From TrEMBL:
The keyword Hydrolase applies. Belongs to the peptidase S41A family. It comes from Massilia phyllostachyos. This is S41 family peptidase. Residues 457-492 are annotated as: Disordered. Pfam families: CtpB_N-like, PDZ_6, Peptidase_S41.
Length: 492
């Protein structure tokens, strides 16, 4: 098996409190450091270490000092790079299967606080009313200001059935609110599916896990068994925070007519980071029978709409970008999160590792995803009244120290008073609104997708925000502008 298949990478949205994280153990040797070590700075680090050991008010263990030094060094790079100690490393490995104990939120660090990127549906946090954009200011009454993201996550974890009290600050509200959340073992159902109405199917991927491709194939076969003449299929990736790269490759390959089409490319500092990933089995499944074997032929040609929003990130953006580049589907909704960086797990010891950003992702046509995301072909608001969440949503470009995107545009300065008023209006609109039940009869965007299939009018968003206008794509050198001609290597 080639090295590309072995190094499939990590594309989770960041460390999550009770969310299945994704990783890849790298067996590649570390790149030799070409520049000389900064001796003066290293001496200064040693001096500070010595001062703490001799002068601090109480003794501090060597292991703690060094572990925190490593953690701070890695965390200073970008929001998605982090040092994993024994506990965090163990929890990350356990979480890949999609089973974990927690509250069910994707989080990122923002201005010293913990910001909610997205609550996972059907989890304690989601049921408690926690929303994207909320700030966690205290955990069990302990302030999180300037607390490391890793430490905040540790405090939110615990035994199933135990409670954690979160203090939440929400834009537009005068006072924070305190919400007790009961931790529980959460098994995320990766794929849901049903017939919305005769002839029209809905497939939702809530997160890309180890078994996502198998689940999708199983659900797709069941849909066609129920209705062989499907006239339109909606692939719902809204608020899907990402996950494993093989899942994104397999889901894309399930719908593309050619088996060997390019799905995504990566580009980084290391030669091994410059790779191309195709819709071949070696890239999406390395165990058992091919999960995509025997798929209904109609799945390759059925008219498709992919639903996305600001919570669609990472693996979701890879799928949406690939299907959009090959004109296999219409992408509908709002601009995606913009998480287009690769995180690779470099193991330091048997039970510690560094999750390090090593490359950027590009669509088959060479469009960068990082800090830009995928701009929909048809921009449709979340409800008929508009998208009140738009001004509250957090995107990759909003995160401090985010890795700059090649096509990222500097947003125009906004009047603070006007922005605050917009946020207050949004909060007022959302105050009494129940969380949207994706796939239900009240799902406005799904209804617009069905209208598109039927040739009926689609209610588009009233205006196009400036930051959602697509920039001229800066293609990855050598990127393909048409489906590639694949040469299958000889077996080794």
């Amino acid at each position: 098996m080639g090295s590309k298949a072995k190094n499939l990478g990590l594309i989770g949205l960041g460390m999550a409190a009770g969310v299945a994280a994704t990783f890849q153990l790298s067996a590649h040797a570390q790149k030799a450091i070409e520049s000389p070590l900064p001796l003066d700075e290293l001496r200064q680090l040693a001096d500070v270490y010595g001062l703490i050991k001799t002068d601090y008010v109480e003794p501090v263990e060597d292991k703690k000092l060094l572990s925190e030094a490593i953690s701070g060094m890695v965390a200073s790079l970008d929001p998605h790079s982090t040092y994993l100690d024994q506990k965090a490393f163990r929890e990350m490995k356990e979480a890949v299967a999609g089973k974990f104990v927690g509250v069910g939120v994707e989080v990122a660090s923002e201005d010293g606080y913990v910001k909610i990127v997205a609550p996972i549906e059907d989890t304690p946090a989601h049921k408690a009313g926690i929303k994207a954009g909320d700030l966690i200011t205290r955990i069990d009454n302990v302030p999180v200001r300037n607390m490391s993201l890793d430490e905040a996550i540790k405090r939110m974890r615990g035994k199933a059935g135990s409670k954690v009290t979160l203090t939440i600050a929400r834009r537009g509200e005068d006072r924070p609110w305190v919400v007790p959340v009961q931790r529980q073992e959460i098994v995320v159902q990766s794929v849901k599916a049903k017939m919305v109405e005769p002839g029209y199917a809905w497939l939702r991927v809530s997160q890309f896990q180890e078994n996502t491709v198998d689940e999708l194939a199983k659900k797709a076969k069941a849909l066609y068994a129920e209705n062989p003449e499907i006239k339109g299929l909606v692939l719902d990736l809204r608020n899907d925070p990402g996950g494993l790269l093989p899942g994104a490759i397999g889901v894309s390959a399930a719908f593309l007519p050619q088996a060997d089409q390019l799905i995504v490319s990566t580009k980084g500092q290391l030669a091994d980071s410059n790779q191309q990933f195709y819709g071949r089995r070696e890239y999406y499944s390395q165990r058992g029978a091919d999960p995509l074997a025997g798929l209904p032929a109609g799945l390759k040609t059925v008219p498709m709409v992919v639903l996305v929003n600001g919570g669609s990130a990472s693996a979701s953006e890879i799928v949406a970008g690939a299907l959009q580049d090959y004109k296999r589907a219409i992408v509908m909704g709002s601009q995606t999160f913009g998480k287009g960086s690769v995180q690779t797990l470099r193991q330091l010891s048997p039970d510690t590792a560094v999750k390090l950003t090593t490359a950027r992702y590009y669509t088959p046509k060479g469009r960068p995803i990082q800090a830009v995301g995928i701009v929909p072909d048809m921009r449709v608001d979340e409800t008929a009244e508009g998208d009140a969440l738009a001004v509250l949503r957090v995107r990759e470009a909003d995160l401090q120290r985010h890795l700059a995107g090649e096509a990222e545009k500097t947003p125009a300065a906004k009047d603070q008073k006007e922005a605050l008023e917009a946020q207050q209006r949004a909060v007022a609109q959302l105050k009494d609104r129940k969380p949207l039940d994706y796939g239900s009869k009240d799902d406005f965007q799904l209804a617009q997708a069905i209208n598109h299939f039927k040739g009926q009018p689609v209610m588009l968003a009233k205006s196009e925000p400036e930051d959602e206008k697509p920039a001229a794509p800066k293609a990855l050198p050598g990127a393909e502008t048409k489906p590639p001609e694949i040469k299958v290597p000889a077996k080794k």
